[in-house]
């Protein structure tokens, strides 16, 4: 059984210093706290700068004894992240997990992984080989993917917010609703109308 | 889907050019889920063999285990039998030191009803809480584990509504939702003590793993299932002020071939300086006795 009381505290704690960390965790859709959506900003000075990356988080029954399952929902070009499934190769999400860690510290580690790829321990062999053999092309591809997948969606969000606000919903509510449904405009509208 | 197909073709051409790459491709298909699943399968298999904390067995059961084994070990068990009456085995899941300590300590309190000791250790636990806060741990990461340990401590004292019997203590030690929380509590205590006195522990940590104290705590203390070494034992004993005796059962013997059983007493640092109230050594002899065989700890009962 997931320790939901703890998860609740974690969400509060994490979102309280969003201004500083840029890292956010919100429930994903249903009232069930076992499925969450995290967002991390791409680190400055990397090909991921300026991008906002969504991380799909599932909490196993044994949480916090078992690690949260994390997967990039935003497509990303990185040696330790699958370019197809978004699977992340990171020790603290496996055997180095500890209940002393939190969703926020885990997301910070994922963010640090964006800054410091480890191509010798790859999740995506194709990306890793490109990183090792042709670094410039790697940077170019990673940058292109960031612009194509991690920025449009965040630009898109602003448009959706504007649209829904024009329909007469309060902006704060629009934003939190959009977040909670993972940015789907139609779902957000449906939810806004039903509350 | 199109993207995925495109990608497969791309990686297909890669694999033709290099066999090494195809091996890496296979590894890439190993998802974290698969690894974790295999891990929990192994754990489940291990769980079938022995509970977290076993039943008390006469020491002869240990002798039976080595009946046709190494003569030095057989001889050492004979020597052990002179001083110790029984053994209680714990599961070899990497948490055996903490689990052994948990049971041995709570059982000691249950049997002695030593309220002074409970008050003393409660004060130390409070100190540890402050240590963790000052080290920057968020309270919600450790408060549940602290609360659960203090609850167990309370419950082994008689005369309250929460009081439990010896049988129930055994049951709770086998209940993952209690046992693992207490183990994790000790991991927090141990990590906090090592970080707080990082200058003292640094050379020992370097000797063991050649990493920084910070990294050691993150990778070898705080994750469940990471085995304990003398650094962990020293830190836990110091932090809680509880002396621990470790009896070593290994194949070592002196030059003449005569056999004796070595032990080492971990005496809390606070007790060595003064005989302050912060430690539990009014009696010089530790009341926690653990048997160490390379890679594993069990509980020993003196005669």
From TrEMBL, chain A:
Family membership noted in the UniProt record: Belongs to the ubiquitin-conjugating enzyme family.
UBA domain ranges (all copies): 156-195
Name of the featured protein: E2 ubiquitin-conjugating enzyme
Pfam families assigned to the protein according to its UniProt record, in alphabetical order: UBA, UQ_con
Enzyme class label: transferase
Domain UBC core: 2-151
Gene3D superfamilies assigned: DNA helicase RuvA subunit, C-terminal domain, Ubiquitin Conjugating Enzyme
Gene for this chain: LOC105165950
Keyword vocabulary terms for this entry: ATP-binding, Nucleotide-binding, Transferase, Ubl conjugation pathway
Gene Ontology MF terms in the entry: ATP binding; ubiquitin conjugating enzyme activity
Lineage top rank: taxon: Eukaryota
The enzyme's E.C. designation: 2.3.2.23
Active site: 89
SMART domains in alphabetical order: UBA, UBCc
Automatic annotation (TrEMBL), chain B:
Residues of the active site: 93, 96 (nucleophile), 296
Coiled coil: none
Single Gene Ontology BP annotation: protein K48-linked deubiquitination
Every OTU domain range: 85-303
GO cellular component: nucleus
UniProt superkingdom: Eukaryota
The entry's keywords: Hydrolase, Protease, Thiol protease, Ubl conjugation pathway
EC number: 3.4.19.12
Protease among keywords: yes
CDD domains (alphabetical): AtOTU1-like (cd22765)
Keyword Ribonucleoprotein: no
Family: Belongs to the peptidase C65 family.
Protein name: Ubiquitin thioesterase
Species this protein is from: Sesamum indicum
Name of the encoding gene: LOC105168481
């Amino acid at each position: 059984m997931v320790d939901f009381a703890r998860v609740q505290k974690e969400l509060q704690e994490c979102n309280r210093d969003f201004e500083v960390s840029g890292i956010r965790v919100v429930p994903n859709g249903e009232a069930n706290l076992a499925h969450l959506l995290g967002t991390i900003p791409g680190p400055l000075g990397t090909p991921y700068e300026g991008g906002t990356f969504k991380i799909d988080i599932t909490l196993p029954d044994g949480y916090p004894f078992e690690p949260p399952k994390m997967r990039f929902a935003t497509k990303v070009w990185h040696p330790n992240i699958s370019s197809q499934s978004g699977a992340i190769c990171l020790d603290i999400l496996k055997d180095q997990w500890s209940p002393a860690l939190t969703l926020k510290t885990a997301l910070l580690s994922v963010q640090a992984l964006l800054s410091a790829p480890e191509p010798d321990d790859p999740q995506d062999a194709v990306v890793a080989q490109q990183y090792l053999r042709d670094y410039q092309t790697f940077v170019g591809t990673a940058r292109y993917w960031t612009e194509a997948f991690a920025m449009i969606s965040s630009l898109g969000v602003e448009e959706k917010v504007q649209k829904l606000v024009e329909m007469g919903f309060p902006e704060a509510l629009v934003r939190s609703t959009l977040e909670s449904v993972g940015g789907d405009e139609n779902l957000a509208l449906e939810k806004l109308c039903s509350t | 889907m199109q993207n995925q197909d495109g990608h497969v073709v791309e990686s297909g051409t890669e694999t033709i050019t290099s066999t090494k790459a195809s091996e890496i491709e296979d590894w890439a298909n190993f998802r974290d889920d698969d690894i974790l699943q295999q891990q929990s399968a192994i754990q489940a298999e291990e769980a079938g063999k022995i509970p977290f904390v076993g039943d008390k067995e006469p020491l002869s059961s240990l002798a039976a285990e080595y009946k046709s084994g190494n003569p030095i070990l057989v001889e050492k068990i004979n020597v052990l039998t002179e001083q110790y009456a029984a053994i209680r085995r714990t599961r070899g899941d990497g948490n055996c030191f903490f689990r052994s300590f948990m049971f041995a300590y709570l059982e000691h309190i249950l049997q002695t009803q030593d309220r002074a000791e409970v008050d003393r250790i409660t004060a130390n636990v409070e100190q540890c809480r402050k240590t963790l806060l000052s080290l920057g741990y968020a309270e919600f990461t450790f408060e549940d584990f602290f609360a659960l340990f203090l609850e167990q401590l309370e419950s082994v004292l008689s005369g309250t509504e929460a009081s439990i019997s010896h049988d129930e203590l055994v049951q709770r030690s086998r209940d993952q939702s209690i046992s693992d929380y207490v183990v994790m509590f000790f991991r927090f205590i141990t990590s906090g003590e090592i970080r707080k006195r990082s200058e003292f522990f640094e050379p020992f940590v370097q000797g063991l793993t050649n990493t920084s104290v910070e990294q050691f705590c993150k990778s070898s203390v705080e994750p469940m299932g990471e085995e304990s070494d003398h650094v962990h034992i020293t830190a836990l004993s110091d932090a809680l002020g509880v002396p621990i005796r470790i009896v070593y059962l290994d194949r070592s013997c002196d030059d003449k071939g005569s056999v004796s059983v070595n032990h080492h007493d971990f005496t809390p640092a606070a007790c060595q300086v003064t005989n302050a109230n912060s430690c539990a050594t009014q009696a010089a002899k530790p009341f926690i006795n653990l048997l160490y065989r390379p890679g594993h700890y069990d509980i020993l009962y003196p005669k």
